[in-house]
Design brief:
about 45% helix, six-stranded antiparallel sheet, Heat Shock Protein 90, elongated, Beta-Lactamase, 10 helices
Length: about 400
């Protein structure tokens, strides 16, 4: 019995095979289906998807053989089949000295016929075959040969899908690791920078006079740190939503108070642009069941955007209005308004709007997309319309009892 030679690219081939992480994995219906089709088309009792490892032949799928899933590589006809890119056919194994003394040819089940189509990767490496065997000599018709070739390509396509999924899962893990690093190693230092700037301002000795330049520098440090922190948090929030990991914690909350805090948080920002924010609360509003930090995040974003896109010296108006079954929030700005294309894209991630921030501010491009999802998680809706005179009004509505 002759030992099968190894391909010239054996080292690369085995490395390629390992990328699919398929050896010693459980059966998969999609591959088993192709094995059964091969057996049916070729009229053979045995069919298998065989992978050639360094020292063994392992069957990912097998039909017509019971009790074993692998053999030594030295007694595998498939080890010869991978030496050619084309279908490999042996009409009678007993008449070929390479195979005539193999144990399963001399002894049970006394295989006689073999046909195998190599499973070739895009890199040109044959990982194994989809093959058929019979216990009597046989010749395939041209149609049968073509079908077996097609099935080999289909197995290869399934393998490629598997490898692509492995890469995606790996990228997903790397992304999660990066986001965890970003959360800890970037967000926390930025918080310290922002707080330090504020403490420097608060701890000035009585009577100390800061020049206008110093005031501006401290304010700039605080604002830029806040902007970077917000961008990082936007990325983290959006990824949590994409992964379905963001959960709401609902409790009764004073919606007027929640919005008032958002207005006050943006007051200094508006003042830096010589603008003002007017708040019009709703009278007699009952507490609303919601996730207060998340809805305040939406209000902060909407109000911050109004300041961002309004010219110097503008008035931004924030309103809370009761509805039949909940509450409505509105913020009206004095900016340029939205174009038709803006309306189509405004709540999409990474949307690029026609207008530009009047102070050159940066953003993640995710804020409004996150707001939309947060509102919808509460069972609410959001939108925007252009004002009659100038600017736009962003709004969202929440039901009194959002879905659990």
């Amino acid at each position: 019995m002759l030992k099968p030679p190894k391909p010239a690219n054996e080292t690369e081939r085995l490395r390629n095979l390992a990328e699919y992480e398929i050896l010693d994995t459980p059966p998969e219906q999609e591959i088993d289906d192709l094995t059964e089709i091969a057996s049916f088309i070729c009229g053979t009792p045995v069919a298998m998807v065989s992978l050639i490892d360094s020292d063994r032949q392992w069957w990912k799928s097998v039909r017509g053989v019971e009790g074993i899933t692998e053999t030594p590589r030295d007694i595998a006809v498939c080890a010869y089949a991978i030496l050619t890119p084309n279908i490999f056919i042996v009409p009678d194994l007993t008449n070929d000295k390479r195979f005539s003394e193999m144990p399963y040819v001399v002894g049970e089940p006394k295989h006689r016929f073999y046909a195998g189509m190599p499973i070739v990767t895009p890199e040109g490496n044959a990982l194994g075959t989809i093959c058929v065997l019979d216990n009597r000599p046989k010749i395939l018709t041209e149609q049968q040969s073509r079908c077996l070739e097609a099935l080999g390509r289909q197995v290869g396509a399934l393998f490629e899908l598997r490898r692509a999924n492995i890469k995606l899962e790996r990228l997903g893990r790397q992304k999660d690791e990066f986001l965890a690093i970003a959360s800890h190693d970037l967000k926390n230092p930025l918080s310290v920078v922002g707080m330090s700037a504020q403490l420097m301002y608060d701890d000035l000795a009585p009577g100390t006079t800061l020049t206008e330049v110093h005031h501006g520098m401290l304010g700039s440090i605080s604002r830029q740190a806040g902007t970077m922190k917000r961008i990082i948090l936007d990325y983290l929030d959006f990824q949590a939503m994409e992964d379905g990991q963001l959960k709401l914690t609902l409790a009764l909350a004073d919606f007027n108070a929640l919005v008032r805090e958002a207005v006050e948080s943006n007051a200094a920002y508006a003042s830096s642009k010589n603008s003002s924010i007017t708040f019009e609360p709703a009278d007699g509003l009952q507490p609303i069941n919601l996730d207060a930090p998340r809805i305040q995040q939406v209000a902060l974003n909407f109000i911050g955007n109004a300041v961002k896109f309004s010219p110097q010296g503008s008035e931004i108006i924030v309103r809370v209005l009761p509805t039949e079954d909940g509450v409505r929030f509105e913020v009206s700005d004095s900016g340029p308004g939205l174009t038709d294309e803006d309306f189509r894209n405004v709540f999409q991630k990474y949307a690029k709007l026609s207008s530009k921030p009047t102070g050159g501010e940066k953003s993640s491009g995710l804020g409004l997309a996150i707001c939309k999802q947060l509102v919808e998680l509460h069972g609410g809706t959001c939108g925007v319309f252009n004002n009659e005179d100038s600017g736009a009004t962003f709004w969202f509505e929440l039901p009194g009892n959002p879905p659990a």
